Amino acid sequence: MxxxxxxxxxxxxxxxxxxxxxxxxxAGVSLIFAAIGTxxxxxxxxxxxxxxxxxxxxxxxxxxxxxxxxxxxxxxLEKAKVAEELLENMTALFGAKPGGLGFSVIVVGAILAASxxxxxxxxxxxxxxxxxxxxxxxxxxxxxxxxxxxxxxxGQIIPxxxxxxxxxxxxxxxxxxxxxxQGIFAPKTVSVGDLFIGALVPGLLLVSAYLLYxxxxxxxxxxxxxxxxxxxxxxRPHWSRLLAALLPALGLIMAVLGSIMAGIASPxxxxxxxxxxxxxxxxxxxxxxxxLLLESARSTLRVTAMIxxxxxxxxxxxxxxxxxxxxxxxxxxxxxxxxxxxxxxLVVMLVMFLLGFILDFIEITFVVVPIVAPALLMLGVDPIWxxxxxxxxxxxxxxxxPFGFTLFYLRGVAPPEVRTTDMYRGVxxxxxxxxxxxxxxxxxxxxxxxxPHWLHD
Length: 457
Fold this sequence. Notes:
The chain is an all-alpha fold. Helix content is 75%, strand content 0%. The longest helix is centred in the C-terminal third of the chain and has 34 residues, at 290-323. The radius of gyration is 23 Å and the shape is globular.
């Protein structure tokens, strides 16, 4: 590996840690080192004219149309206040049982994950509504903050997940590249729909693991997760109110995921169905106004522009990285490790987990995945299994201190008496649970690949 390539990678990570914008860091640092490499005769400048084609390829990619549509769906559902109604009704329904409010937060987080897929909105909503209620009822602050953060991150693995859309695009290109390098000129493909279907069982396992942890605390340490008071139990809602709050969200989930699983719609088409469904739901609930619609459009535009700019910057970084021979060096490194596929995958997963302490999931997706995925796929790793493992690993980056984004989101809305150290300590059991689920999926790949392969067969 060229010493110049090594310094380029170090410079990129250094600039990101200093807080410079991701997209411009990736593109700017790469082009600077490409110029230095050209001057020293270490880089072929004829590769650079390929940049415009890469940019237009990103813009014209029909798969990425799903990004703004899923973002719009999530923003509209947040404005429709679906979470407030669900949490209010499910909390009262659990009655005086210890851990009932914790169960409600996790279940509502899972439902929101399957209907919005936007972590920030879910964490802020749960933090504003559920966290004060949990603290008021005497819940252990560490458990309360950890539960809100963990439930909010479920949108990373439960489809329709934005990270699965981005990973699907990256893995599709990597899978094609790996097969072409092996002399397979009629390559198989992996789609976002495959990842959506493959993520269903791991997502439900993660939710179940969170619920089991809450059940354990309710059994062994009920004082940390007390039940509702007698007056609150008397005010439990009628089933009709719960169904009225639950059915719209479940209907939207079935419309989006059901259409993909039934083969009726592609992920992009399903995203359009979800966006229109969220718009209709907001109108039905009589919360639609022109200011709300304009703000939703602006929020969607900001998030979409950010993602596409990072995509373009990462594409330039990838081009320069390959121009320096980085892809060959990484492939040789991973394939030469003792233990073959297992060791290579373990090393990559460990590196991604450690990077999650200092970088967010988008940066890791666009910088690390294009570099390591082709080599892993050439070793025979199943692309769906790899995508789910990556998604679960990237989910931990939202929880790991000091730069876990859910910690930042919750800190912004948490009551002043909640200490940051309590939040850091509160997420540790949930990080451990996520690592256990990753180990389970790694040990039994059919948990991720079984459903997609069964539906295809």
